Each structure stands twice: as structure tokens, then as C-alpha cells.
Amino acid sequence: MIxxxxxxxxxxxxxxxxxxxxxxEKGASTTTTxxxxxxxPYPSTYQRVPSPPVLITGATVLTGTGTRLDNADVLLQDGxxxxxxxxxxxxxxxxxxxxxGKWVTPGIIDIHSHLGxxxxxGMSAHSDGNEATAPVTPNVWAExxxxxxxxxxxxALAGGITSLQVLPGSANLIGGRGVTLxxxxxxxxxxxxxxxxxxxxxxxxxxxxxxxxxxxxxxxTRMANVAGYRAAFIxxxxxxxxxxxxxxxxxxxxxxxxxxxxxxxxxxxxxDIRVHIHCYRADEMTTMLDLAKEFGFKISAFHHGVxxxxxxxxxxxxxxxxxxxxxxxxxxMEAFDGIQENIALVDRVPNGCAIVHSDSEEGIQxxxxxxxxxxxxAHRAGMDIPPERAIRWLTSNPxxxxxxxxxxxxxxxxxxxxxxxxxGNPFTVYAKAEQVYIDxxxxxxxxxxxxxxxxxxxxxxxxxxxxxx
Amino acid sequence: MNRTTMTKALVAACALAxxxxxxxxxxxxxxxxxxxATSRGTLDNADVLVRNGxxxxxxxxxxxxxxxVVEANGRELTPALFGGITDIGLxxxxxxxxxxxSSQSLGAETHEMAVHPExxxxxAFNPASVLIPVARVEGLGWTMLSAGPTEGGSxxxxxxxxxxxxxxxxxxxxxxxxxxxxxxAASMTxxxxxxxxxxxxxxVDEARGRISPDSKFALLTPAGRKSFxxxxxxxxxxxxxxxxxxxxxQLLRWSKRQNVRVAVxxxxxxxxxxxxxxxxxxxxxxxxxxxxxxxxDQIGATLENAARLRTAGVPVxxxxxxxxxxxxxxQMAGIAVANGLPWEDGLASLTRVPAEAFGxxxxxxxxxxxxxxxxxxxxxxxxDVTSLAQQVWLGGQAVPMRSRQTELRDRYMHAPNGLPRxxxxxxx
Lengths: 469, 428
Hints:
The structure holds 2 protein chains of 2 kinds. Chain A is an alpha/beta fold. Chain A has a domain of 324 residues: TIM Barrel, CATH 3.20.20.
């Protein structure tokens, strides 16, 4: 990805660093120059579930790279994808999965979820997704709101979701940090935290901040929205200047009090934290592209973007993805121009990056069907999109926008063993994820009750058949 | 186009739309896979003859006479689908209050319950709403308008009715009274669902004249008493928004005690009391996507709800996905089928079952002689997300397969021709 104002970013990389003490694997203390915004006092404790090798045979395989392989095999070992091809040999002790007539895809990735921060049941005590007390809160981290017992993680797993980004809501101009999770049942969010995934920064355009703060001191208008972003980034730039000066004085970060708000924004400017912007209208997205240039940050994706089709060329030229619904529209004024071909029109542009996202505990269970709707609408409009292309909308494209494409999002040797075995072509209403593998381990199986996890919350309820069925 | 000619064009378009079947052309749809949604089931390679806006014959080898012939080539033909229980034509933009007419909150400033069963949302229906063509091109022909309970109103939302999505303005068939009970509505009855039965019993007493209209405890206006009485003694249908199994059981007891005909909307836990619902012949309009405990009334939610209800003999309809996303009903039926509901029952949940429940089955909801010719020809399985409607007929008239959304699509699909896109395509 091309960073805007690359030289400036490089300069910041050199000087915007705090000196930190970390211990290497042997326990020896070493000095590093990691920026303070990359400090993670809440580190991932994720451990893959051990599994013998798995050889999936005879499937129609969509690799996520744009390729379709018929009657192909996928070999998983030690948590990784080892090989994809035909006639693969099963290593000793391997489990064989006969997938003739079935389809295999990379694990599905949802770039926009509020699972855990707006969990089920949607009690007032569970409403942890918007810090709607001030319009600029880059200091808050969505991960600190996550309730890992949200049963929605497990229904999402049954829909093939292996990774997801949990974001703060859209009440605020700058809502805070989002976190990427591996969708494994867990008692703590740290044990779900995707190792090595960058954080996201959630921002929001348009009606929501206006509505929430219009009678609470503002912003009350779109122009005040933009003034709010600019003020925040000016402060962050000033903060970075102070960090640089402290570094120049040889005093390290001792002189500059750490500021969590500016820390996160500095991380965004520096390209370490991915910027994800809730934005519906074409004109507002374009304003945000200008804002990004003004302050030297890169927008990873516009989320919702119901008017992305109006500026598909510009999005592709700026290397910004559109994380979109198949057909949502009309629930508010800025969503009035939604059309069913939005995803296809963003996708068809050279270097276009279309993503199917959910923003919904229902939608995340069937992103494959959302993509199927987009394919059908595109077909009606004269655009034929084969499955091997469409699968990228829910695998490699979100992985790219989330900064985890080098680890997951395609079926390529060396990547995480995040794989879904479908009962057939995934792009139909009758499709079901039969098996879901995360890092090579079968963590969901529709035909094996021993691999159907249940949230603590659902234990002891009088019904044993609700939930994941 | 200047303002005057635009107005003239609009008037002309509206006149055309409102006249509906007056201009209907006789048509023979030939060689279709006809899903009748009746006991005749699906007829392969069958013909449907439409005369004067109604179905005149269903069979094989029908003579066209002077009717226009549509060759279906084996594609699937269904009745125009039920769009769910929605606010189509009652709201244009959900977030903009001035465009929303689906509930009343006359008591909002008084902190008193304002019970108005005489509130009839069909009077607010706007047949020119842009939502209507958006729904129609997806094969939806009609919807049940609901009156939503809201703070400042009461658990009695008011009356809704069936409207057709053909540009006609007036509802057809009887009105239904919408009522909400359970945790979501408890704030309107002193924060206890137990008080909901207290209030409902009182309304019955008032409507039956057991409480004097002059009583200081009376909740209903004279018009309200009259309206509510029309739904007693099984003369009208009360549609209850309710999810928890025990609340549904209480509803069945109440409906028996007070002699009220009811339907369930939502019914996340309805499958748990399916036998009782079947015995009482109560139809359930299911949210087939609900499989999470969204609140404590829905702990038992499961994707198999529709299938289990049907197995027990309960008539199952699709609840719907709201107004703007009404087109999602086909996916909702398909998901029910993917989770055990027989395909024929999936189609019935969008055709015959809602038509029977809402008292319009003599007019539409099936493909049979005498029925209104509300038909859809599909490019594939009508319950699958991979398929789309190819042509919709309402009252025998082929409707334009255009909407505001197809207009937007076509404006932005193609490169502009030198002028900004706001100019008509083809202008130089």
C-alpha cells in the first residue's frame, strides 16, 4: 500500500519513537525503539488449538486469490496451510475429509462487527460500543468493552467467520481503536486477539455524530464534523512534534507526557493503525480523502459507503477499499441512494477493492449470501462475476484492508489454516458452512455436536436447542 | 424538463399507476413451472391465462385467443409475494420523523397512556412512495401495513391493513389491530408485562360496555370503544408482537377467554408451544433470521422455528424485514427452507398463508382461476438469493421493472458523455 506523503511518514518513523524495554524470548532485556502507540499492555494470549494434520480432498476450491480449482485438495498441518492442489498425500496421522461435491474457501472475515461490544442479549448493561460522552475519543479501545460470552461470536462461527474486526460505534467523529480477533470461543478477549494484527481507528462522517452531539455542544453540522477532525489531527501533529523534539534532546519520551488520544492518532498518521471511516455519501467520502491528504494519513476503508459506486474510480485511485452492504438503504437520509450494484461497481474498477461487511450480528452469519445477492444484482445489470472473484470480497480484500493478508485471507501455503468447508457453492441461500477450521483446528462442525461451542450465557437455559443450529 | 412539464408527467404517471387493471392486457404465460400455492402444488410446463386482470385458466395447452403470449421456457411462476408486515408507504426515510406515519404518540407530553385503537395507519399510506417500485421489481405485490406501538401511545398500536403495491391508494380486505406485549412493550404498561393483561382486559370491558364511558378510569374514546369492539368475538384479527413462550401461552388463554382471534408476529420462542398454537389455529409470522437471544424474551430463538412450527401444524408466514428491505423476505423464506421448512411451505409463507390470515385469500395469494392476476416470472428458484424477478404483473398489467434504484444504477454505471451526470443520458 502506498502511504501518502511517504517522506514525512518516514521521518516520523525515525523520530516519533519512544524507547521501551521489552523482554525477548530468552528473558533478556533489550532496548527497542517501538513507538508508544504500538505498546500493548493487553497483549494477545491466543494459542491455536492443537490438531493433527487435515487433508481435505476432492473439493471445489476458491483460493481467495481469484482462482478456482476443481476436484482439489487442501492440506493443513501445524496450524498452517501446507499445500493446495490435486493428488496431495496425507501425512502420517492426518485426518481425511472427503469433500467431493463440497466447496472450500478461506475463512470468512468481517471487517466491521460490534460483536462483544453490542452483544446479545442487548441489555443496557451491555451497551459498550459508543463512548458517546465526547465527539473525539481516540483514547478508548473497543477491546476493553468486549464481552467474550456474546453468543453472536458462535453463530458467526457457524457462518464461517474465522476473523473479525470489532470496532467502536459511529456516534463519535473519532470513536477509538478497533481490534481484530480470531473467532475462537474464549473466556478473555486477549485469548481471541489476532497476534500481529494492527489496530484500526474508527472514525465517522455525517449524520450520527451530528445527531448525537447536536444538542450536547456539537458538532451539530457536517462542517463542524470536519472542523472536529482537523482540530484533533492538528493536536496529534503537535504531539508528534513534541515527541520528535524530546527525542532530539536525547531525553527520550521523558519530557512528553503520554497522551492516549494523540498516541492513537499519531499511530494512524504513522500508518501503524489502520483508518476505517464510517461514511455514506460520495461527497463526504471525498472530503475525507482530502482530510487524509491534509494530515498525511492513509484511509484503509470506507465502511457502509452506500454511495461508493458514485466515486468508484477515485476510491481505486487512492487505494481505499469500500466495506459495503449488499443492499441496505433508506433507513436514514444519507443512506437514501443505496443500490444493489454498489459492491459490483466498486469491484469492477481496475484495482477496485470491494468488501462485504456486516455491521450486524445477523449479517455476519451469512456474508456469503450477501455476496450472492450482489452477484445476482450485478448479473441483472449485465456484469457477470464468477465465484472465485466474489469470494475475495469476504476473504482477501478485508484481510488486505485490515493488514492481515500476509497471515490469512487466502488459501496459500504458509498462511494460517483458516478454512471453511461448505455443503456446496457458498453463494446461495441454501449454503451452509459444514466445517470451520481456525489455524488448522476444526472448531465448528455442523454434523458433530462435539464441535458446536456454546456460550456460558446459554448454559442452563431451559432450551437446549436454541442458538447455533 | 421544466417544472410544469415535470408536473404533467408526474400526473400522467400517477394516473397510469392508479388506473391499474383498467389498461390490463390479456396475456397467456406459456410453458412455465407454475407454483400455484394451492393444493394443486407445482405444475410443470403449464400455462396461465389472464383475462381482464384476473386469472381465467391454469392448465396445459391453453389457447391464447387474442391474449399476448409470454413464453416462459420452463421458468418459475409464482403469485406476487407478500412483502411482510411493513411500513411501506408509511415511511420514506426511517430516520426522518416528518416522513414517518406508522405510529401515534398523542400522549407523549402527558406521560399517560394514549390508547387509540381507532388509529388507522392506512389513512397515511402513500402509493407514490419510492419504496413501492423498489419492492415491486423484486416480486413483491402486497404488504400488511402495521401500526407500531410507541412511547406516548400504548401497547395498542392501532389498525393496519393490506395494501397492494400497484400504485392503488386504498387498502383491501379487513383491518387488523396491532398489539405489542412482552419486555419490549413493558415500559408502556408501568414496567411490568403482567399489567399488559390488566390493560387488555379493561379495554375489553370498556368495549363491551362493562365500564361506563364516563368512568374516570375509562381509557378509550367513543371511537376507540367502537373500533376495539369490532375486533372482539372473532370478528377481526388482532396481531400480537410477542416472542416469549410463556407470553404466547398467556395470549392463547386470553384470546380464548375473551373470544378474540389472534395471530403472532415475531414469535421467537413460538416453537416451544407449537402444539398449543396449532390447536388454536393461530398463524405465526416468523422472523426466520432470529437465532440469538437478543433479549430475555428470545432465549429460545432458533433458525428451526419455522420448520418446527410447521411440523406441528401451525400456519407459518414470514414476518418481513421492514419497509426498505422488504425484498429480504425471499431470503428469509429460503433460510427457513434451508433449516427444515419444506419448500412448498416456504412459498406459502409468502403467499397463501398471509393471504388467508389477513382475509384476502379470495382475491390473491394463489394462482387459481378467479384470482387477481398478480404474478411473477423468475429467472430461477424464487426463494434463492441467486434469483431475481424477471417480470411482475399486478392485476394483469406488466409493471415497469424500474425503480429509483435502477435509475441511480444506470446513471452511474456508464461513463458520462461530457456533461455532468445530472443531465439526461444521451444529451450532448
